[in-house]
Design a protein that fits this description.
mainly beta, Porin, 2 domains, eight-stranded antiparallel barrel, two-stranded antiparallel sheet, 5 helices, about 15% helix, about 40% strand, elongated, disordered C terminus
Protein backbone atom coordinates (compact mmCIF):
# COMPACT_ATOMS: atom_id res chain seq x y z
CA UNK A 1 0.00 0.00 0.00
CA UNK A 2 2.86 2.38 0.81
CA UNK A 3 4.47 1.86 -2.58
CA UNK A 4 1.10 2.42 -4.29
CA UNK A 5 0.62 5.68 -2.35
CA UNK A 6 4.10 6.82 -3.33
CA UNK A 7 3.34 6.04 -6.98
CA UNK A 8 0.16 8.11 -6.85
CA UNK A 9 2.08 10.96 -5.20
CA UNK A 10 4.76 10.94 -7.90
CA UNK A 11 2.10 10.92 -10.65
CA UNK A 12 0.33 13.91 -9.09
CA UNK A 13 3.60 15.81 -8.70
CA UNK A 14 4.49 15.08 -12.34
CA UNK A 15 1.09 16.29 -13.49
CA UNK A 16 1.46 19.48 -11.48
CA UNK A 17 4.88 20.18 -12.99
CA UNK A 18 3.51 19.46 -16.46
CA UNK A 19 0.56 21.79 -15.99
CA UNK A 20 2.81 24.46 -14.59
CA UNK A 21 4.91 24.35 -17.75
CA UNK A 22 1.93 24.66 -20.06
CA UNK A 23 0.22 27.84 -21.24
CA UNK A 24 -2.40 29.41 -19.04
CA UNK A 25 -3.89 30.92 -22.18
CA UNK A 26 -2.79 31.86 -25.64
CA UNK A 27 -0.65 35.03 -25.42
CA UNK A 28 -1.58 38.29 -27.13
CA UNK A 29 0.97 41.00 -27.94
CA UNK A 30 0.42 44.58 -29.09
CA UNK A 31 2.98 47.09 -30.26
CA UNK A 32 4.21 49.64 -32.74
CA UNK A 33 6.24 49.47 -35.92
CA UNK A 34 8.40 52.10 -37.64
CA UNK A 35 10.50 52.03 -40.77
CA UNK A 36 10.73 52.99 -44.43
CA UNK A 37 8.45 52.57 -47.45
CA UNK A 38 9.23 52.33 -51.15
CA UNK A 39 7.61 51.31 -54.41
CA UNK A 40 8.42 49.52 -57.66
CA UNK A 41 6.76 50.67 -60.86
CA UNK A 42 7.18 52.77 -64.00
CA UNK A 43 9.04 55.54 -62.16
CA UNK A 44 11.80 53.45 -60.59
CA UNK A 45 14.27 51.19 -62.45
CA UNK A 46 14.08 48.76 -59.50
CA UNK A 47 14.11 50.15 -55.96
CA UNK A 48 15.24 53.77 -55.71
CA UNK A 49 16.68 54.21 -52.23
CA UNK A 50 16.48 57.99 -52.59
CA UNK A 51 12.70 57.63 -52.82
CA UNK A 52 12.44 55.90 -49.41
CA UNK A 53 9.78 57.53 -47.24
CA UNK A 54 8.68 56.93 -43.60
CA UNK A 55 6.10 54.38 -42.48
CA UNK A 56 4.63 53.35 -39.15
CA UNK A 57 1.67 51.75 -37.48
CA UNK A 58 0.32 49.41 -34.82
CA UNK A 59 0.32 45.61 -34.74
CA UNK A 60 -1.35 42.90 -32.70
CA UNK A 61 -0.09 39.30 -32.47
CA UNK A 62 -1.92 36.22 -31.29
CA UNK A 63 0.52 33.35 -30.78
CA UNK A 64 -1.52 30.33 -31.79
CA UNK A 65 1.41 28.01 -31.15
CA UNK A 66 5.19 28.08 -31.01
CA UNK A 67 5.27 27.89 -34.81
CA UNK A 68 2.17 29.83 -35.92
CA UNK A 69 1.39 33.46 -35.08
CA UNK A 70 -1.65 35.38 -36.30
CA UNK A 71 -1.13 39.11 -36.77
CA UNK A 72 -3.28 42.10 -37.57
CA UNK A 73 -1.89 45.53 -38.41
CA UNK A 74 -2.90 49.05 -39.35
CA UNK A 75 -0.08 50.79 -41.25
CA UNK A 76 0.58 54.16 -42.83
CA UNK A 77 3.36 54.97 -45.29
CA UNK A 78 4.35 57.20 -48.18
CA UNK A 79 5.71 56.27 -51.60
CA UNK A 80 7.05 58.32 -54.50
CA UNK A 81 8.81 58.01 -57.84
CA UNK A 82 10.24 60.10 -60.64
CA UNK A 83 11.66 59.76 -64.14
CA UNK A 84 14.72 61.53 -62.74
CA UNK A 85 15.68 58.15 -61.26
CA UNK A 86 16.63 57.05 -64.79
CA UNK A 87 19.91 58.95 -64.87
CA UNK A 88 21.35 56.66 -67.56
CA UNK A 89 18.32 57.03 -69.85
CA UNK A 90 18.04 60.54 -71.29
CA UNK A 91 14.72 59.78 -72.97
CA UNK A 92 13.14 58.75 -69.67
CA UNK A 93 14.42 61.85 -67.94
CA UNK A 94 12.85 63.99 -70.68
CA UNK A 95 9.47 62.37 -70.01
CA UNK A 96 9.50 64.22 -66.66
CA UNK A 97 6.70 62.30 -64.90
CA UNK A 98 6.63 62.00 -61.10
CA UNK A 99 4.23 61.31 -58.24
CA UNK A 100 3.81 60.75 -54.52
CA UNK A 101 1.09 58.97 -52.57
CA UNK A 102 0.08 58.08 -49.04
CA UNK A 103 -0.59 54.41 -48.34
CA UNK A 104 -3.05 53.35 -45.64
CA UNK A 105 -3.14 49.59 -45.08
CA UNK A 106 -5.25 47.36 -42.86
CA UNK A 107 -4.50 43.68 -43.05
CA UNK A 108 -3.91 40.31 -41.50
CA UNK A 109 -0.99 37.90 -41.90
CA UNK A 110 0.17 34.52 -40.70
CA UNK A 111 3.74 34.28 -39.39
CA UNK A 112 5.44 30.90 -39.49
CA UNK A 113 8.24 30.79 -36.91
CA UNK A 114 10.97 28.67 -38.49
CA UNK A 115 12.64 27.58 -35.22
CA UNK A 116 9.60 27.80 -32.99
CA UNK A 117 8.97 30.86 -30.82
CA UNK A 118 7.79 31.17 -27.22
CA UNK A 119 7.18 34.62 -25.86
CA UNK A 120 9.51 34.11 -22.91
CA UNK A 121 13.27 34.05 -22.49
CA UNK A 122 13.18 30.51 -21.09
CA UNK A 123 11.79 28.71 -24.14
CA UNK A 124 12.82 29.56 -27.73
CA UNK A 125 13.20 33.32 -27.13
CA UNK A 126 13.93 34.17 -30.79
CA UNK A 127 13.23 32.96 -34.30
CA UNK A 128 13.30 34.01 -37.94
CA UNK A 129 9.91 33.83 -39.64
CA UNK A 130 8.19 34.07 -42.98
CA UNK A 131 4.76 35.62 -43.43
CA UNK A 132 1.94 36.02 -45.90
CA UNK A 133 -1.59 37.38 -45.82
CA UNK A 134 -4.04 39.81 -47.36
CA UNK A 135 -4.52 43.57 -46.92
CA UNK A 136 -6.90 46.31 -47.91
CA UNK A 137 -5.05 49.48 -48.85
CA UNK A 138 -5.91 52.99 -49.97
CA UNK A 139 -3.70 55.21 -52.13
CA UNK A 140 -4.09 58.51 -54.00
CA UNK A 141 -1.32 59.55 -56.44
CA UNK A 142 -0.49 63.25 -56.50
CA UNK A 143 1.55 65.23 -58.99
CA UNK A 144 3.38 68.50 -58.35
CA UNK A 145 2.34 71.27 -60.73
CA UNK A 146 4.68 74.14 -61.55
CA UNK A 147 3.04 76.89 -63.55
CA UNK A 148 5.23 78.10 -66.42
CA UNK A 149 3.51 80.97 -68.28
CA UNK A 150 5.49 80.44 -71.48
CA UNK A 151 4.48 76.75 -71.54
CA UNK A 152 1.04 76.66 -69.96
CA UNK A 153 -0.45 79.36 -72.14
CA UNK A 154 -4.02 80.39 -71.49
CA UNK A 155 -4.93 79.80 -75.13
CA UNK A 156 -3.93 76.11 -74.89
CA UNK A 157 -4.44 75.19 -71.22
CA UNK A 158 -6.72 77.85 -69.77
CA UNK A 159 -5.99 79.62 -66.49
CA UNK A 160 -3.69 77.30 -64.52
CA UNK A 161 -1.85 79.94 -62.48
CA UNK A 162 -3.99 79.18 -59.42
CA UNK A 163 -2.56 75.64 -59.27
CA UNK A 164 1.07 76.77 -59.17
CA UNK A 165 3.07 74.97 -56.48
CA UNK A 166 0.27 72.58 -55.58
CA UNK A 167 0.15 68.79 -55.35
CA UNK A 168 -2.89 67.87 -57.42
CA UNK A 169 -4.84 64.60 -57.37
CA UNK A 170 -4.18 62.70 -60.59
CA UNK A 171 -6.92 60.08 -60.61
CA UNK A 172 -9.82 62.57 -61.08
CA UNK A 173 -7.94 64.11 -64.05
CA UNK A 174 -7.97 60.86 -66.09
CA UNK A 175 -4.49 61.58 -67.45
CA UNK A 176 -4.76 58.59 -69.81
CA UNK A 177 -8.25 59.63 -70.93
CA UNK A 178 -10.05 57.04 -68.83
CA UNK A 179 -13.82 56.99 -69.41
CA UNK A 180 -13.72 59.60 -72.17
CA UNK A 181 -15.87 59.10 -75.25
CA UNK A 182 -12.97 57.81 -77.36
CA UNK A 183 -11.44 55.69 -74.60
CA UNK A 184 -14.52 54.55 -72.74
CA UNK A 185 -13.00 51.05 -72.43
CA UNK A 186 -10.34 52.50 -70.12
CA UNK A 187 -11.91 52.44 -66.67
CA UNK A 188 -10.90 54.87 -63.95
CA UNK A 189 -8.88 52.96 -61.36
CA UNK A 190 -10.14 52.47 -57.82
CA UNK A 191 -8.21 54.13 -54.99
CA UNK A 192 -9.00 51.31 -52.53
CA UNK A 193 -7.66 47.90 -53.48
CA UNK A 194 -6.36 44.54 -52.26
CA UNK A 195 -2.69 43.64 -51.80
CA UNK A 196 -0.90 40.44 -50.83
CA UNK A 197 1.82 40.98 -48.18
CA UNK A 198 4.69 38.46 -48.20
CA UNK A 199 8.07 38.68 -46.50
CA UNK A 200 10.61 37.60 -43.92
CA UNK A 201 11.46 38.76 -40.42
CA UNK A 202 13.21 38.07 -37.14
CA UNK A 203 11.91 38.58 -33.59
CA UNK A 204 13.47 38.21 -30.13
CA UNK A 205 12.39 38.62 -26.53
CA UNK A 206 13.90 41.36 -24.36
CA UNK A 207 12.37 39.57 -21.37
CA UNK A 208 9.15 37.69 -20.62
CA UNK A 209 7.04 40.70 -21.61
CA UNK A 210 8.79 42.83 -24.25
CA UNK A 211 10.03 41.76 -27.70
CA UNK A 212 11.63 43.45 -30.68
CA UNK A 213 11.82 42.49 -34.33
CA UNK A 214 12.73 43.52 -37.86
CA UNK A 215 11.07 42.53 -41.12
CA UNK A 216 11.00 43.17 -44.84
CA UNK A 217 7.64 42.80 -46.54
CA UNK A 218 6.63 43.41 -50.15
CA UNK A 219 3.05 43.96 -51.26
CA UNK A 220 1.84 42.47 -54.50
CA UNK A 221 -0.93 44.67 -55.85
CA UNK A 222 -3.42 44.16 -58.66
CA UNK A 223 -3.16 47.68 -60.05
CA UNK A 224 -0.66 49.39 -62.35
CA UNK A 225 -1.74 52.83 -61.17
CA UNK A 226 0.07 53.44 -57.88
CA UNK A 227 1.97 56.06 -59.91
CA UNK A 228 -0.97 57.01 -62.23
CA UNK A 229 0.93 55.53 -65.21
CA UNK A 230 -0.04 52.42 -67.15
CA UNK A 231 -1.11 52.73 -70.81
CA UNK A 232 -0.43 55.16 -73.68
CA UNK A 233 -0.29 58.87 -74.40
CA UNK A 234 -3.43 60.34 -75.95
CA UNK A 235 -4.18 63.50 -77.86
CA UNK A 236 -4.07 66.37 -75.34
CA UNK A 237 -7.23 67.75 -76.91
CA UNK A 238 -9.08 64.72 -75.54
CA UNK A 239 -7.85 65.09 -71.97
CA UNK A 240 -8.27 68.85 -72.11
CA UNK A 241 -11.76 68.60 -73.56
CA UNK A 242 -12.93 66.09 -70.95
CA UNK A 243 -11.16 67.19 -67.78
CA UNK A 244 -9.66 70.62 -68.46
CA UNK A 245 -6.25 72.09 -69.12
CA UNK A 246 -4.76 70.78 -65.88
CA UNK A 247 -5.40 67.20 -67.03
CA UNK A 248 -3.53 67.84 -70.30
CA UNK A 249 -0.66 69.52 -68.44
CA UNK A 250 -0.23 66.63 -65.97
CA UNK A 251 -0.60 63.94 -68.64
CA UNK A 252 2.42 65.15 -70.61
CA UNK A 253 4.99 67.05 -68.60
CA UNK A 254 7.74 67.17 -71.20
CA UNK A 255 6.98 70.83 -72.06
CA UNK A 256 7.94 71.84 -68.53
CA UNK A 257 11.56 71.19 -69.47
CA UNK A 258 11.38 73.96 -72.08
CA UNK A 259 10.66 71.73 -75.07
CA UNK A 260 7.97 73.75 -76.79
CA UNK A 261 8.28 72.12 -80.22
CA UNK A 262 5.98 69.21 -79.44
CA UNK A 263 6.37 67.49 -82.80
CA UNK A 264 10.13 67.41 -83.18
CA UNK A 265 11.44 67.42 -79.64
CA UNK A 266 10.13 64.30 -77.93
CA UNK A 267 6.77 65.88 -77.28
CA UNK A 268 3.13 64.92 -77.11
CA UNK A 269 2.19 64.79 -80.79
CA UNK A 270 5.22 62.69 -81.61
CA UNK A 271 4.19 60.13 -78.98
CA UNK A 272 0.47 59.83 -79.59
CA UNK A 273 -0.32 56.16 -79.03
CA UNK A 274 3.16 55.50 -77.64
CA UNK A 275 3.52 53.72 -74.34
CA UNK A 276 3.30 55.91 -71.27
CA UNK A 277 3.65 52.81 -69.08
CA UNK A 278 3.58 49.02 -69.20
CA UNK A 279 0.10 47.76 -68.42
CA UNK A 280 1.26 44.12 -68.47
CA UNK A 281 3.06 44.57 -65.15
CA UNK A 282 1.59 45.63 -61.82
CA UNK A 283 3.05 48.01 -59.26
CA UNK A 284 4.43 46.89 -55.88
CA UNK A 285 5.11 48.67 -52.60
CA UNK A 286 7.22 47.49 -49.69
CA UNK A 287 7.99 48.17 -46.05
CA UNK A 288 11.24 47.64 -44.14
CA UNK A 289 10.33 48.10 -40.49
CA UNK A 290 11.24 47.50 -36.87
CA UNK A 291 8.69 46.30 -34.30
CA UNK A 292 8.37 46.65 -30.53
CA UNK A 293 5.65 44.59 -28.85
CA UNK A 294 4.43 43.94 -25.31
CA UNK A 295 2.59 40.88 -24.09
CA UNK A 296 -0.68 42.01 -22.52
CA UNK A 297 -2.24 38.66 -21.62
CA UNK A 298 -1.58 34.93 -21.59
CA UNK A 299 1.71 33.15 -21.95
CA UNK A 300 3.71 30.42 -20.30
CA UNK A 301 3.63 29.83 -16.56
CA UNK A 302 7.07 30.03 -15.00
CA UNK A 303 6.30 28.90 -11.44
CA UNK A 304 8.23 25.65 -11.73
CA UNK A 305 11.91 25.92 -12.50
CA UNK A 306 14.42 23.09 -12.14
Amino acid sequence: MKSFSKSILFVLMGAAVSLGAQRKSQPIEVGITLGGANYMGELTPSIALNETKPMGGIICRYNLSDFVTLRGNALFGQISGSDKNYTSDAAREKRNLSFKSDIIEIGGTIEYNLFGYSETQRFNPSSPYIFGGVSLFKFNPLGYFEYIPSVHTQAEYGDLARYDGQWVELQPLSTEAQETTKFNDRRRYALTQISIPIGIGYKKQFDDVWAWGVELGVRKTFTDYLDDISMTYVDPQITRGSNGGLAAAMADRTPELGRTNLVNDYGSEERLGANRGDETTKDWYLFLNFTLTRKITGGKTTCFQF
